[in-house]
Amino acid sequence: MKRISETTDIPVGISACVMGEQVRFNGGHSQSKICQVQLAKHFQFEPFCPEVAAGFGIPRPTMRLTGNPDDPDLIFSRPPADGSNEPEADLSKQLMDACQPMLERCQRLDGFILKKDSPSCGMERVKIYQPSGHPHEQRGSGLFARALMQRFPNLPIEEDGRLNDAQLRENFVMRVFAHHNFRTEVTDQPSFHKLLQFHSSYKYLLMAHNQTAYRELGKMLAVAHNEPLDALLKTYHEQFMSAISTPASRGSHCNVMQHIMGYLKQSVDSSARQDILNVFEQYRVGEVNLITPMTLLSHYINQNGSEYIRAQRYLEPYPAHLGLRNQV
């Protein structure tokens, strides 16, 4: 198993404007310092702008989605100029044809960061207009974003704006590393044994995010050794990525840390164990962030833990120097 600190250059797609490329409709950009400064240390970003790929030019008139929010066939269009009665031109096919090469490349990506509110890249809350020109109350996804999410439902996807939320950022990065580890450790040279190793290393992280999935995946693998491997890997990956898609609560983290404490019963005296449990409680009630109890617990696990517990990726799901647990 590769140590997490050695994992670099994870391929992640990103809206080109978020990387600072001047490709927005007005010739500007929406550069994210989080992506360029923090995440670029381990992510090899692959920028993409659907609208530029479709040949709409820089700068270009604003684009919008028109139609019924419940209808899958929305129109990607350039609104008529002020005072013009000409109908909106449907540019949906031109846009989606230009997106196909990127969608093919996404098979080897481990995540994607999209530009919020964009009619092509917005993940959610994108305005959809009525033929009258007034927006519907209900909102939706940009055309490229929707195609990406439908084709790769297990791929970690997030919007640039939501990455400003420390909890969502931590969860996204964790999922990207988990997706990368599954792809490189299991699916690249698949075997039932490698799947068991992967599951074993993620047991406590699964428990923190979804106890039901933790139990169900364990039961599934316990009786799956004779199942067709391709189908098993597909089912496991879907359920695993779904299980970790929601950030873990403070209470769930405390529950997992207490379980891990069980491996220290024989090697750490009761007074020290009580001190550790007191720090867990400080975290649970919000007095300290996750890095505080995790640093203390990891210290004792590294000194006294078994090889099995030291291999748990819950202890270091991504490089510690990213500082993500300092803020959650």
UniProtKB/TrEMBL annotation:
Renumbered residue ranges of the record's region Disordered: 65-88
Stretches assigned to the DUF1722 domain: 203-319
Top-rank taxon, per record: Bacteria
Name recorded for this polypeptide: Uncharacterized conserved protein YbgA, DUF1722 family
